[in-house]
C-alpha cells in the first residue's frame, strides 16, 4: 500500500496547493485503498493488487472530471530542473552539518582569542614582573587564533561551493524524498531544542566563574588567569552549539523549499520572506555567523564592564554595518 501512496503523491506533486486538489487527492486515495483491499481479499498477491490499482486509477487525465480537478490538470506546470535524489539530499544535510560545526569552531576561536594575551599578561606579571614576554607570546597566539578562524571560514565557503546551484528552479525533490526529509527534521526537533538550550545556558552563565572566583579567591593572579578566560570559553562554546544546530536545521529547510510552494509537492514549509545571498563566498560564510558574533560581543562587553547603559550601542552599529554589507555584496532572492 505504501507503493500506491507514493505513486499518488507523484501524480499530484505538480498540481496547485488548493483545498479542491487536496480533497480530490484524499478521495482518490480512498478509492485506491478500497480497490486494493478488494483485490487482496479476492486472493490477489500484493504485487498484482498494486499493479491493478495503478492501472485502474493511475491516469489523472481520465479521472480529472469526476474528481473535479479538470481545470487544475490543464493548468499545471511541468517541473523545472533536475530531481535531487534522497541520497544527494542526505549528503547535503551531512555536508551542511559538518560545515556548521566548522563555522562554529571558527567563531569559537574568534571569541576566545582574547584569552591568549590575558593569560600571557597574568603569567608574565606573576613570574617575571616588569617583563612583557608573556604578553608578547599571548599576542602572537591571539593572531594565530584569528588566522586559523579566518582560514576555516574560507575553507567552509569553498567546501560548500559544490552546492551553490541547489536552489528552486535548478532542482526539485519527489514527494517521497520530501516526506522523508520532513519526518527526519521533525524527529530532530527535540535534539535541536536541547542543544540550543545548552548553548543559551552556557552564554547566560558565562559571567558565573568571575563571580565565583571573585568571592572565593583573594588571589588577583587566579582571578586574571581563570575568570575572564572561562567567560570567553563559555560564550564561545554556547555560540558554537547554536551555530552548528542552526546550520543543520537550515539544511532541511532549504531542501524542503526546493519545490514550488504553490504546488502540492511544496507544501512542507510555509512561504518565507526574501533572503540575502552574497556574491562573495567569504562574505557569505562570515555573514552566516554575523548576528551570533554580535550577540557574543554585546554579552562579553556588558558582563565585563556592567555598563549596560552604553553597551546597547553595539546593536545600531551592527545593523548599520549589516546594511552596508548587504548593499555592497548582497543580492535578494526568494
Number of E strands: 4
Helix content: over 70%
Give the termini separation: 37 Å
| Main sheet characteristics | 2 strands, parallel
Q: Mean of the pLDDT scores?
A: 79
Low-confidence stretches: 270-274
How much β-strand is present in the residues? under 5%
Task: Compute the number of structural domains.
Answer: 2
List the helices and strands and how they pair.
Layout: H1 2-12, H2 19-41, H3 46-57, H4 60-67, H5 70-75, E1 82-83, H6 86-112, H7 115-127, H8 133-159, E2 171-172, H9 175-187, H10 189-204, H11 208-216, H12 220-256, E3 275-278, H13 281-287, H14 290-305, H15 308-311, H16 314-329, E4 330-333
Parallel strand pairs: 1-2
Antiparallel strand pairs: 3-4
Structural overview:
This protein has 334 residues and is mainly alpha-helical. It has 2 domains: 2-75; 84-333, no CATH class. The protein has helices spanning 2-12, 19-41, 46-57, 60-67, 70-75, 86-112, 115-127, 133-159, 175-187, 189-204, 208-216, 220-256, 281-287, 290-305, 308-311, 314-329, and strands at 82-83, 171-172, 275-278, 330-333. A two-stranded parallel ribbon has the order 1-2. Helix 1 runs antiparallel to helix 2 (19-41). The relative contact order is 0.12.
Keywords:
2 domains, 4 strands, mainly alpha
Compact overview of the structure:
The chain folds into two domains: 2-75; 84-333, no CATH class. Helix content is 73%, strand content 4%. The chain has helices spanning 2-12, 19-41, 46-57, 60-67, 70-75, 86-112, 115-127, 133-159, 175-187, 189-204, 208-216, 220-256, 281-287, 290-305, 308-311, 314-329, and strands at 82-83, 171-172, 275-278, 330-333.
